[in-house]
Amino acid sequence: MLLNDGQSSVADFEPNVRFHPCAVTKHRSLWKLKLAWHCLMHILIRRPALIVCGHINFAPLCSFCHRVFGIEYAILAYGIEVWHVESRITRRAIADAVIVVCISRYTAQKVLEQVPGAQGKTVILPCTVDTDSFSPGIPAPGLAERYGLARGPIILTVGRISAAEDYKGHKVMLEALVKVLKVKPETKYLIVGTGDLVPELKAKAKELGIEGSVVFAGFVPASGLADHYRMCDVFAMPSKGEGFGIVFL
Question: Which of 55, 56, 170, 209 has the least CB density, counted as fewest CB within 10 Å?
Fold first, then answer.
């Protein structure tokens, strides 16, 4: 289940893995309920030995299956979603998990501060990156020309462009670019990613009078990301709330 992504974001995955994207659905809340029901039915029919819960919002559902059917479950804790857990039901679900896999020491600390019952169950599994693919090098020929970036320094930001994740700092970058262009007028700002905040960012760039220096690349599959990183002179994303920040890594 993909909360903020569309089907195009899973194009590189194996065909036998099934995804349910919510981002492009008209009635998102109803769709999420439908998917939760679908997951529950699948669990009841297949009776797996272990459920891997990828987001704490589904932890209460896993806890229900554990209490009623005795199915163990693990929780993956990435970052901001577990920094402030207000629901008592969700906190209890975290405590009942057989293991809580945290993306960083900070996230593990935040989990234990709120859920002391998770003591002894938390493990840290940091993000990794394939350095055979993501390494310094020359970008694919013609990539800069495709975006009209053949001249001038290139600033790059990669990440989901969602109103729910406005803390990633795209607007801050646009405001900073105004000052950068006064010193380096040929600078281009390349934004990789998509989401419901794109129209607002385009409007802001136009309002600031820098729309000619900002390029929205849209969604780029994982296989093409390394070339985009290699093409830039500076990577910038002044985010205020990353659990680990895979794009920085």
Answer: 209
- Taking the C-alpha atoms of residue 190 and residue 235, their distance in angstroms, rounded to an integer, is 10
pTM above threshold 0.85: no
Q: Which domains does the chain have, with CATH numbers?
A: 7-124 (3.40.50.2000), 143-235 (3.40.50.2000)
Measuring CA to CA, how many Å separate 118 from each of 87, 91, 92, 95, 114? 16, 9, 9, 5, 9
Tell me the pLDDT tens digit for each residue of 16-75: 666 666 555 566 677 777 777 877 887 888 888 899 998 888 899 899 989 998 999 999
Residues 6 or more apart whose Cβ sits within 8 Å of residue 21: 2, 5, 6, 7, 9, 10
Q: What are the backbone angles phi and psi of residue 52, rounded to the nearest 5°?
A: -100, 110
Rounded CA-CA distance 34/39 in Å is 9
Task: Count CB atoms within 10 A of the CB of residue 121.
Answer: 19
